[in-house]
Amino acid sequence: MTTQTLPQLERREPLWTRLPVLSHVRNSVGLQRGMLIAGLVLTVVFLLMALLAPFIAPYGFSQISDAKGDFPTQDPPSAQHIWGTTVGGFDVFSRVVWGAQTAVLVIVVAVALSIFAGVALGLASGYIGGWLDRVLVVVADAVYAFPSLLVAIVMSIVISHGQSSLWGGILAAAISITVVFIPQYFRVVRAEAIRLKAEPFVESAKVLGASSWRIMARHIFRNATRSIPLIFTLNASEAILTLAGLGFLGFGIEPTSAAEWGFDLNKAISDVTAGIWWTGVFPGLAIVLTVLGLTLVGESMNDLADSRLRTRGRGRRQRTTTAGTSESGAPQTGAVPGYAASTEASSGQEGGQA
């Protein structure tokens, strides 16, 4: 009597385990996982501080007095002001917390505009090709010649006319970052579009009479934007540095309009010679830790995008699981005669190919 071999069913992982960041955490091992988790912790703290700023900050970003009277200027850290006060009487802790909210606004506006323009131009250039592709590639290469901070200064003057209001400063930084970051998204999406337009499923869509816009929107767009989260995390840290550079050079946001870390560092320069360290240390640490967290996440995701690293980590976990199963000697549940043997044979073939 022969036993029928049942086909091996592939288990589909839950959706939440296939999300960009969570999937990278699962695939990471050793030091790479530690760097990724450290970056995620710093990034989550930064986001929570921005979202919960009204509840965390004891005072407003431009508040210089309360019911007891005016705040003392350049007051060292105390029970009332845990990180001290600035030369203008602002609470340093409150300014740092509210500054996280300003940084998030710049990241969202700048990167959203960059992704929208870069992906649209990349799809059109890669799929349509011809003279449009040649012109866009030349323009994208020329944009790299412009320093981002110089463009940000010019945009700040043009948009805000020397008046550093909240949205004027945010739009100045966001537009300058958008101009610099568009070529990055453009090049990645263009390369994927050129590769995907020769795939069989795109050719089948053409045979069925699908228009070029439908093919780009339904077939190529979905497969050409998988690496966008990697670029987003790397660009977010650069956006914060550009905003801080504008504020430090005096083109940022005034303290009465919004809190901004670079502006606070500018005002703290004169305090250093007088031994007043708290007005510059805490805003500087906020910039360093936020940029470090976003950079660790971006670089770790970029490294794990390499298929060799993913295969190495997955193979190590599979070997550990196989060794534990062989040592315990526990039989597989629901085994069918002949099915276990075929599974072992296929596993042996996969091991030989690897």
Automatic annotation (TrEMBL):
Biased composition (Basic residues): 310-319
Stored CDD domains: TM_PBP2
Pfam families: BPD_transp_1, OppC_N
Record domain ABC transmembrane type-1: where: 100-298
UniProt keyword annotation of Transmembrane present: yes
UniProt family annotation: Belongs to the binding-protein-dependent transport system permease family.
Name the UniProt record assigns to this protein: ABC transporter permease
Species: Sinomonas terrae
